[in-house]
Amino acid sequence: MGIKGRKQVLWKTVKLPIDLALKAVQMIGSSENEQNASDNGGSTSRQRLKVCIDANVVAYTHAGDRSSFHPADAVFTIAKALSEKHVDVLSLADHESRRHPSKRATCQRKADAAKAEIQLTIARSNLQTLLSAQDVESPSEHAKNIDKAQRRVVSLENKIKRQLPPDFTQKLRDMISEYEPQGKGDLSYETAPTQADPCLAKLIIDREADALVTNDSDLPMYIGPNGTDVMISEISIRKTGEPIKECRLYTGQEATASLLGELLETELGHSPFENSTVHKNRDGYTPSYPIFSGVKDPMVRALAAMVVGCDACPKGVAGSGPKDAYELLRKHSNKSGTELHQALAHDISSMKGSSVKDKDAVLCLAESLLYEKTHDGGYVHGAPPLELGRYLEEFAADTTRIVDGPCIETCKGFNGNSHVFLAAEGISTCDVCDSKVCQFCQVNEQKELLDATTTNRYD
Hints:
Blueprint: E1 11-12, E2 16-17, H1 18-39, E3 50-54, H2 55-60, H3 71-84, E4 88-93, H4 104-132, H5 139-161, H6 168-178, E5 187-191, H7 197-205, E6 211-213, H8 219-223, E7 231-233, E8 246-251, H9 254-268, H10 298-308, H11 322-331, H12 337-350, H13 359-370, E9 387-389, E10 401-403, E11 408-411, E12 419-422, E13 428-429, E14 436-437, H14 447-450
Parallel strand pairs: 3-4, 3-6, 4-5, 6-7, 9-10
Antiparallel strand pairs: 1-8, 2-8, 7-8, 11-12, 13-14
Helix pairs in contact: 1-9, 3-6, 4-5, 10-11, 10-12, 10-13, 12-13
């Protein structure tokens, strides 16, 4: 789940030839590794460039009718093409089913898919009614209504198709395991304990990878200035000829953007972040409100993400964006630590468009971004949490103290996908069965149209 207004938050380069982009990543990675080796009084053991692919995010851009590639084929094509360029590639996928309910983006996707199926049933019924009726008084208007209803059905059918197929992870795993690099870049595959984001971020922070192939703008929030958050994005792949030719590089850190500028400006003859109306191929940008740049406290970055959108708060605070988050950080720039976290959470919960009206619930959801366990059993930023609310109990280490925290409710969900949520997020009532539901699973269709379609679906 990306952030709102990432043009105002992240640096984006113009389109780059893939070889030039990899050269820039290599040079930045070499600089980071040399610095890391110097800090540790030794030398780095990793010689080749290593890139990680956010498998689910990349695959989703090829789901349904968006591409002629099967999602697994698309990820493998990118991985293989990078391997051919002597790059080591790790494809890291989300767990097939396991997500903590604090990742509200997952709850929203499941609810949206179920709602789309209900809406499609209703839309098809409406279309059938129109097709079986005749309007002799206004045939042209009747024809327009039929056309509109048909387009509605097609739109909903396409929306339902835009999901990863059940065989995605198994197919990708099999293709990677069967691949023979023949002395070039190695390919590997891993499944995250829950979602890939924190695991990918940790690999960058630990200097075990140099860049990420992803379109997910959440990652600069996770990484911050603790690692080089270079994201290789907008890769177009082809079935014939050279599989990948161009891409863009994104970063949330001004220091990384400066390095990219120094490395690429000579090659391009202009800034990689230049935006020009005269030169149509120069469509990079420099952000106005780089809310993650230089912010070392991960909790502060997580709280800023609650304003602009993240997995724990999809679409962020309604009616607010990067400018509001930036001004909020400036307002409390004289504070630090727990005092700063409390002040930010209070102001976020008090925003007019906030869906979470309780300070402690805001803090709880922000913590869910930082304390989800990574593939090595640790946390994105190392140390285990000292204290967590009961809602996040499964994130705890042996030394973590669990407190009651915000009030927890249970949502009936769709298709048996019952899940807990925080009461402060807002409680709705199912129109059909009067059960408690979260804001994402709420359905506002007419009750009489739902009765037939929600059986065994919203139970």
